[in-house]
Amino acid sequence: MDWTDSAAADEARRGNQQAFRVLVERHSHAVFRLAFRMTGNEQDAEDMVQETFLRAYKQLQRFDGRAAFGTWLYRICANCSLDLLRSRQSRREAQPPETGNESVHWLDRVAAREPSPERLTQSSQIADLLQPALKRLSATERAAFILRHYEGCDIEEIARTLGVQANAAKHSVFRAVQKLRRALEPAWGAIR
Amino acid sequence: MSHLDEEQLVEAYYAPDEQSRMHMRGCPECRAAFERVQEHLDALRDYPVPERGPGYGGEVWKRLLPQLPPVRKPRAWLRLWLMAPAFATLLAMAFVAGMLTQRKAQLVGTPASTRERVLLIAMNRHLERSQIILSEIANGSTAVLDFPREQERARDLLDDNRLLRQAALRDGDAADASLLDELERVLLDVANSPAEMPSRDLEALQNRIDNEGLVFKVRVRSSDVRFKGQQL
Ligand SMILES: [Zn+2]
């Protein structure tokens, strides 16, 4: 069906599930991409995709059409992922140090799929360091950085998503970049 | 003019402003530092995401469909919630304070009574406002935080917090009472700290908010309350 996003959202709000299906099929890839970058883990990302569409469906009455439907949806996805990261973080802080029993990461999968020695290049060095470095950021810093760097959101948008003032959002992006630059120090030599 | 610091260089990478551009034009040192930032951030662009096939949207829909609840039309009181939160808080406070007790007999006993709705509205509003101030303090530095303003907001929230905590206790809602109790202690700390807060004290406060997972707890409870409100 050739609905625009806002027409489909209107229809879905009136209870037309097929209209919501159009929106799900249209936005699933982008929501997955964001969820994966936020969580760094395929299974978590799939869970976040489900949770995002479920929350969106329940909250359809509150979508007022002022923002694009996609923007509204990505904000929900960022928030779901943020909730997950924060709950993990607070649980981690409350528990003894991990024993290396974490879920499998994209890096391990990439490494398993492409074990060629050429991967010991600059970009693989960066990739090897990036994921653990991202994990060391606070949930807010990670979210702010992902939204700024990969999703191209502006500061106002990030502030709205995180529920903070613009200055705090800007500062979170900066702290994330600063920590990542420090953590990736060993890889920078290879760039030059 | 002094050189650009790292924060300004990062800012210039994402959203260059005329001032930093001008500075870099005349300053080889900052230009070199900026190029370094640019190289690093460009190198981070490549963050591989696992492929999803063309049928992925259909798969998501298939998994989602059994979980979808029926869509509800917004009720009149929900529109009130969305449009007049300040009025709603006043109403709720009046109610909690017992000013409407003479009408209570008419209200209690009906399913999803007005009292419950009013309390939910007040609780939702209170948690949303608390979440903003907690997040700002948890993520800010002494340089970016307008601490006196946060204190003013914390003082505003304290009265509502006490009333809501008392209402939760009266209703035997131990979980809400304990969350509001935790929140109250942090709000009191914010309200009673010196306006010129030393970074060390701010860090201690941030650690406390972090360790208690308070922002998350408030966020989760806030979304539960909102959801419950929609179901009434
Ligand atoms: Zn300079």
Question: Could you describe the 3D structure shown?
Answer:
The complex is a heterodimer of chains A (192) and B (232). With 192 residues, chain A is an all-alpha fold. Helix content of chain A is 74%, strand content 0%. The model of chain A is unreliable at 97-120 (pLDDT under 50). Chain B has 232 residues and is an all-alpha fold. Chain B has two domains: 6-43, no CATH class; 74-231, no CATH class. The termini of chain B are far apart. The chains are: A mainly alpha (192), B mainly alpha (232). Bound molecules: zinc ion.
Secondary structural class of chain B: mainly alpha
- Mean pLDDT rating of chain B: 80
Rg over C-alpha atoms of chain B, rounded to the nearest angstrom? 24 Å
Summarize the main sheet of chain B.
none
Please give the oligomerization state of what you see.
heterodimer
Main sheet makeup of chain A:
none
Distance between the termini of chain B: 60 Å
Compose a concise summary of this entry.
Chain A is mainly α. Chain A is 74% helix and 0% strand. In chain A, helix 2 packs antiparallel against helix 3 and helix 8 crosses helix 9.
Helix/strand layout:
The complex is a heterodimer of chains A (192) and B (232).
Chain A: H1 5-13, H2 17-39, H3 42-58, H4 69-94, H5 106-113, H6 122-136, H7 139-150, H8 155-162, H9 166-183, H10 185-191
Chain B: H1 6-14, H2 18-26, H3 28-43, H4 56-64, H5 76-83, H6 85-96, H7 101-107, H8 114-139, H9 147-170, H10 174-192, H11 199-211, H12 214-231
Bound molecules: zinc ion.
The site of zinc ion has 6 residues of chain B, from helix 3.
List keywords for this structure.
heterodimer, A: 192 residues, mainly alpha, Rna Polymerase Sigma Factor, Chain: A, Arc Repressor Mutant, subunit A, 2 domains, 10 helices, 74% helix, elongated, B: 232 residues, binds zinc ion
